[in-house]
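Record Type II toxin-antitoxin system VapC family toxin, 136 aa.
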Amino acid sequence: MLGIDTNILLRIFLTDLSEGDHTPDQFALVRDAVVGSREPFFVNHVVVVETIWVLRQKLKYSKVIIAGVMTRLLHMSNVMVQDAAIVEASLSGFIAYPGDFSDHLIGEINKRNGCRTTLTFDRAASKSPNFSELQR
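=>
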């Protein structure tokens, strides 16, 4: 198994979505090394968060489009996503409630590890059932 960094993961999807300003050589390298490979690849939470940040902040993709891209990632036969069920639940929260994907991932990880809530000062995140806004 090999790990995939954010810049590789982005090129998997940007090639497919015909977006971005990367050299054709990079797309070809990714296509040959990853997309057509039978070797399994691992994508950790940090790479998922960074990828979603780039898609949302830099490329201005909607939450729905991002969820579609990430759902495709979760169903790729040669890719293992760290705690895929947690990522999937976090995507649902990301679509349903305000806040960044990273907020929803934090809340979901904490919930799955026995936390009844996650305290925050972030008003957007506090709209999710996994968070409670800390107030006076």
